[in-house]
């Protein structure tokens, strides 16, 4: 039986503080830093050692996340080149032509958002889809609120919580859970199918009801809806990249399946492809000036990547103290995995069952996700999955996937207004109203997904 020490209780105290701070919609970086400092001081007995622990925690977390930061930054940089080339417009145009009525527009807009989010991440996808396809969807009869719901649920919901191509979310969760990302991805498939079907079907029913009950209002909205048309210079090079880029990433997916590339290997393939397309597009578009222009694209891309991941590194550094292997790298040889020990002690003192554990994982993901960052909950939910995985016989990958879905759907921006601003802004709707419309579909989806996870664990 594991005996909990004073250090374990101090760690749990700071975990509680972090959760409360996030629940109050505040950033938890200061509690995380103070928590690492306090535990480092208690463990080493020296102030110098405590200060070093803070830095070590950030280095360990940064090292774990570096590959994901780089690949997302490169993809964002590449997307900027596509915009300069006008290739993004051509890539989206075939799907836009399919939106002949409101019903089809809802699903086409959502699926397009999902696919683009998988390959270039939801934030860049909002600008791309919103600027090109949203005006066409509204003219087809889809209310702007319905368009915003489709983009949001498919992109920041399904797309970001799966992240099957770039594999940022599953890599972070898997690291904390002590799993291979591919195991987490496999476990997430049945859960995300349930989540996707429940949320999108309920949302579609809501949109249909809204159209039928407010038809006159939406007819006026459709007629009055005006969007500045983007002036795009279409050249032969635009057509070349409109074909080349999708083919390149389709080839990446084929290579992942054919050569069984997983985790870091799959991420490296996607990142390398983005870098090569970025360089090629810059050279062909700007010639000699590409030597300077590519620097601007890369700088913008990495500014985006660091902006997203900077707080996650600090939060991850704290929660990595919960896992023995990473805790030893932060505090020194022999350091315990605090959450792992707590899980073992809890399993000896309290009769745990799958339903109770699943609810804990769900609640942790949702509460920590209230800060508005879809990735902030991932180190915690991964650590909780590892904790109970050692304490109770259950499927750790399924539990971790449930936590990832709960955290990303909450924090990634589907039911909290402060996470919905990009989609709401480009659609011209109230983010509070958008969050209210999303609430019932998302909560129903999480409830159904949790039941399925309990069965599969």
From TrEMBL:
Q: Does the keyword Cytoplasm apply?
A: no
Report the superkingdom from the record: Bacteria
Transmembrane regions listed in the UniProt entry:
6-24, 29-48, 54-77, 98-119, 125-142, 187-207, 237-257, 269-288, 300-322, 415-432, 439-456
Annotated keywords: Membrane, Transmembrane, Transmembrane helix
Name under which the protein is recorded: Transporter
Its lineage opens with: Bacteria, Bacillati, Bacillota, Clostridia, Eubacteriales
